[in-house]
Design a protein that fits this description.
globular; four-stranded antiparallel sheet; alpha+beta; DNA-binding
DNA sequence: ACAGTAACCTGTTTGC
DNA sequence: TGCAAACAGGTTACTG
């Protein structure tokens, strides 16, 4: 479900209610996520004040003065704020209690993760190899152009590689490539600097607009306030195979790249 | 080092 | 209607 805009939308939705609040309990109903949910969460967090809720790529970082909870939503994870008395439903795997308020983690496919680290989260094995944030000044044309040389993979695979740049999942990779006019399957080392520059800008623009619209709701993603994300109406190619391109009218095609559905306009994208 | 693929798991949609 | 296959927003770990 969640790419960077959905994770950021979630963070913005829940942070005001939780930052500077004290954890009163942790309940793990199903520890079998991507990796086992560690036993220590209750001991580490109960009675401790959450200082800040940050995001790195698609990871949410719950910062305490003695360590951090690292949380990833995987493909189908979501977080909601509920009254602590709300009955749990199927797939509600973890509750983090803040008095009368419950932060509830739901994840039908269980590809998500909750981990604890006492070091700085940036130095954690899973985070330290991550590339720059796409909306940061670090993510530039020169940077992406440099990494695109001497490699033979498709440009879509390149921008979906979290070691290159974080947060660009399947939806926003497709949309960014459409905006930049580049075919997803094109070898990344056969694209000019100018066109890599267009793509760099397109990634930033697509993600910014998506965050401002509260992310993309395809089936069941919801913002913390219960509203859907509104970026779905802005999608130009994702899940639109057979529909006419909004720029030229040619039918949108679907192919598979790196085991992922890929959508593009064969006329507008070269 | 690089590129491609299988795997993790459950629910929903599609096709016969 | 039933059943099986295909597919789904992510990422690691393995293979060659």
């Amino acid at each position: 479900m969640p790419e960077l805009p959905e994770v950021e939308t979630t963070r913005r939705g829940i942070a005001p209610a939780l930052e500077q609040k004290t954890v009163t309990g942790v309940l793990v109903r199903q520890p079998g996520l991507r990796w086992p949910v560690p036993d220590c969460l209750q001991n580490e967090m109960k009675g401790k004040k959450l200082l800040r809720l940050e995001r790195r790529g698609k990871y949410l970082l719950f910062g305490f003065d003695h360590g951090s909870l690292i949380l990833h939503l995987g493909m189908s994870g979501s977080l909601r704020l509920l009254a602590a008395t709300t009955p749990a439903e199927k797939h509600d795997h973890v509750d983090i209690l803040f008095g009368e308020t419950c932060l509830r983690y739901r994840d039908p496919r269980r590809f998500g993760a909750l981990l604890w680290t006492t070091d700085s989260p940036e130095s954690h094995k899973l985070l330290k190899q991550l590339g720059p944030e796409p909306l940061s000044a670090e993510f530039t044309t020169d940077y992406l152009y440099g990494l695109s040389r001497n490699r033979r993979i498709s440009i879509k695979s390149l921008i979906m590689d979290s070691k290159v740049v974080v947060g660009v999942g399947n939806i926003y990779a497709n949309e960014s490539l459409f905006m930049a006019g580049i075919r997803p399957a094109r070898r990344c080392d056969r694209i000019s600097r100018e066109r890599i520059g267009r793509l760099t800008g397109a990634i930033k623009q697509v993600l910014e607009v998506a965050i401002n619209q509260g992310g993309t709701t395809l089936q069941d993603f919801h913002q913390a306030d219960g509203n859907p994300g509104y970026f779905a109406q802005s999608l130009r190619v994702y899940d639109r195979q057979g529909e006419p391109c909004q720029q030229c009218g040619a039918p949108i095609l679907r192919v598979v790249i790196g085991q992922r559905s890929t959508f593009f306009c064969p006329h507008c994208q070269r």
